[in-house]
Amino acid sequence: MLRYVHLHGPTSRAELTGRLGLNRSTIGALAAELVASGLVTEEVPTTPRRAGRPSLVVSPRSVRVYATAVSVEPERLRVARIGLGGRILDLREAPRPHGSALLDAVPAVAALIRESERELAADAFCAGGAAAVADTTRDDDGTVHVTGGDETFAVALDAALVGDGPGRRGFVWGDLADIAALAEHTRGVAAGVDDLVYLHGDLGVSAGIVTGGRLVTGHGGRSGKVGHMVVHPHGRRCGCGSRGCWETEVGVAALLRRAAAPPGTSALAVVRAAALGDSTARDALHGVADWLGFGVANLVNVFNPDIVVFGGTLREVYAAAAGTVRHRVDTMALPASREHLQLRAGALGPDAPLIGAAELAFENLLTDPLLGPAAGSQ
User: Fold this and answer.
1) Residue 267 and residue 249: Cα distance in Å, rounded?
2) Are 135 and 147 in contact (CB under 8 A)?
3) CB of 176 closer than 8 Å to CB of 150
4) Distance between CA 376 and CA 79 in Å, rounded?
5) H or E stretch including 160?
6) How many CB atoms within 10 Å of residue 8?
7) pLDDT digits (tens, 9 = 90+) for 260-280
């Protein structure tokens, strides 16, 4: 019941009875237990739908029960306090210095968390924390490096926050693309879809892959480095040391290079210039989109997902040149892989890693609601 209300929002007892396949007395008893645990509220609906006694509405206590979500991106650090039910209560960010190691980000992230929690109510309860960590970083000279997350980051962040915050449980971490895929799978454009590929683009390109409803993380949580599929063996040298990797054709650097954009130009600026009729920007956009479809066709032949979701800068590229991407996929992908395939821009935008991190942090509580705020008083 708690998981259903967390994902779907305020829900009447009558609807829960039907959705969960339980009788009314069981639903009532479970709701009462969750109210007593401090995780939900029950209220009479303000707009009764039919005659007779209205069914009480069960709602998550979003303001009181929250998770701490962290997103460590190539050029910025973000922290959000996200309430039970998926509501973003507070969002803060700070720049990430070029060339900084992952552990160097710990003090700044800890400071953002303390700021976020400075004015919490006395009865606020933190269900846990999670960090989505990008696998690339940039040096001052512009060189891009493949780095990746590490559990030592979560351990160091825990140590930096010892004694701070209500009911803190300890941080976990995951690859940013994996975490964003989780968000789109639970709350975004791929909700209810059990086989999906989420592609995230920033300085590099990574994938979060869900098959049979389960995230594929690989050894040490380091799968999904699809940006390093070699698609052009005699192409450009990649930051990983190989040549012709997919991200050399579809990453931000590729778009800016094709557009002959001056230093400091953003990928979004090129996309906007293309929309306004700039022929160089338009050719750059469609050149990248064609290579994007090339790689997607290979991925759908391997994984046969129901949907491919585009996030980060790839979301903007796909939204602006969807026809080019689709044409390449239709040209290369097997009929059995493409006939049912949806290609979609992510629904959660830049907040997907934070929302996914919160889902990861809430998991223990959703699995065992007795771990909630009432546990400390028992």
Assistant:
1) 14
2) yes
3) no
4) 26
5) helix 151-160
6) 14
7) 999 889 999 999 999 999 999
